[in-house]
Specification:
There is one protein chain. A hairpin with a 2-residue loop joins strand 29 and strand 30. The relative contact order is 0.12. Strands 1, 3, 4, 5, 6, 7 and 8 form a 7-stranded mixed sheet that branches. The protein is mainly β.
Length: about 425
């Protein structure tokens, strides 16, 4: 049985209006996966009503999405015993002999005038039952997103956890031009690194991109006026606005969960403190009051508190404070350095940069039992950001292979590396879900 999915306007806006010069694609490599990954067969999709081949290989995108989780092992195309495009064509005996537990089949229909209909079905091979099936209308620009949506459906059906393949990542690239000068760019790409688009290009540094809760805007820090200022970019309209250009430091913007407030660090009154700006009234309130450096705020999912980095105890550690201000509570005690914290989507954990004996690695802190678990193993890792389903953490890493992005599962079992052919890439931020 097939169901029909209709793309929402918000999804189409991001597909159609995020335009710009295509930059180098991020290459994603799994460096460590889960032992005993679940075999799954994704059969090449059929093609109906059009000449040549479909503009996007839907099956290949789905298989790539599932493979990158480290939890699934797609069957190589050469090992497929058959290539059905519809459940009625499936002989489950063939697939049981192959030993795969799940099977994905589907087809793409060209409806003309740039419109397509994508159909897929997911089967439990050993039970001979359909687990899911949808028919999804889309257009040429939306084919890859449709494939990611299908991956999300499959992933959730097989794991019980919402997939995050149809989300995006923002990051900053640094390259050297022919004149020897550095070039910086704020990029937005699909979660698999495909289709990067430049939001901003500059000869001055760009830092700390942060997604609005609706996924339609990015806040970031730019040095284009030769001093740090915070801007907000509307991705659909292509418009931007400077929100904080005070004398001194303006940095580390963070959206409240309802999108109505922006927290950031400023030294407008002399000392770096955390401030909160009401985006409608433009009322600015100072949240912290301490002679130490208070920076890198991040909101809790319920919007009632924030965490931030402070050296008020002598070294950088993570503190928590109510969104109305007041007494700050220290959260980290292990190691000599803990910074750049942010909440998991369910609010139960923090991801942060943990420093010990000269190494700076990505860690998670369980807020219930205060247990700290180090997940990465490089010398210099930074800027961790949770996937919106809480399953992975993306971060920047530096090592023998240069500066790149990496991702690790919250249990530490799956590791990925995302690298550019040329240049450095850093400051990643995973987008929220866009329904």
């Amino acid at each position: 049985m097939l169901k029909t999915i209709v793309h929402t306007a918000a999804i189409l806006v991001l597909n159609v209006l995020l335009t710009g010069n295509v930059q180098a694609v991020l290459t994603i490599k799994i460096t460590r996966g889960v032992e005993g990954a679940l075999p799954v067969a994704v059969v090449p999709f059929g093609w109906e009503g059009g000449n040549g081949s479909p503009p996007a290989d839907i099956a290949d995108i789905i298989a790539g999405d599932l493979r990158r989780t480290g939890r699934f092992a797609p069957v190589p195309g050469s090992d497929l015993p058959a290539r059905p495009h519809d459940g009625a064509q499936v002989d489950f005996h063939d697939w049981r002999r192959l030993g795969t537990e799940n099977l994905v089949v589907g087809k793409v229909e060209d409806r003309g005038t740039g419109r397509y209909q994508v159909q897929f079905q997911l089967f439990d091979v050993f039970k001979g039952l359909q687990l899911s099936g949808y028919s999804i209308p889309t257009d040429r620009a939306g084919l890859r997103r449709t494939a990611h949506q299908i991956s999300d459906i499959i992933y959730e059906k097989l794991t019980g956890e919402r997939g995050a393949f149809a989300t995006r990542i923002a990051y900053v690239t640094e390259s050297v031009g022919a004149d020897g000068d550095k070039r910086y760019a704020l990029e937005v790409a699909d979660s698999d690194g495909f289709g990067p688009r430049s939001v901003l290009e500059s000869t001055q540094p760009i830092l700390s991109p942060a997604w609005s809760p609706d996924g339609g805007k990015l806040a970031y820090v730019s040095f284009e006026t030769n001093r740090p200022a915070i801007y907000v970019q509307d991705l659909a309209a292509g418009e931007r606005e400077q929100l904080a250009g005070f004398r001194g430091i303006n940095g580390a913007p963070a959206w409240s969960p309802d999108g109505k407030r922006l927290a950031f660090t400023s030294s407008k009154e002399g000392n770096p403190e955390v401030y909160v700006l009401d985006l409608q009234s433009r009322k600015l309130e100072r949240l912290t009051h301490n002679a130490a450096i208070d920076t890198e705020p991040a909101w809790s999912p319920d919007g009632r508190s924030l965490v931030f980095t402070s050296d008020r105890g002598g070294r950088p550690q993570i503190y928590r404070i109510p969104d109305t201000g007041g007494k700050a509570q220290r959260l980290t005690f292990e190691g000599t350095y803990n910074a750049r914290a942010s909440f998991s989507p369910d609010g139960s954990r923090l991801t942060l940069v943990h420093g010990s004996r000269g190494d700076y690695r990505i860690a998670v802190l369980d807020l219930e039992n205060n247990a700290l678990t180090v997940l990465s193993d490089a010398k210099l890792d930074e800027s961790p950001s949770f996937a919106p389903n809480g399953s992975m953490i993306i971060y920047a890493t530096s090592g023998e292979q240069g500066a790149a992005l990496a991702a690790v599962s919250v249990d530490g079992r799956v590791h990925q590396r995302l690298s550019l052919q040329k240049g450095r890439v850093r400051e990643p931020a995973w987008s929220p879900f866009v329904d």
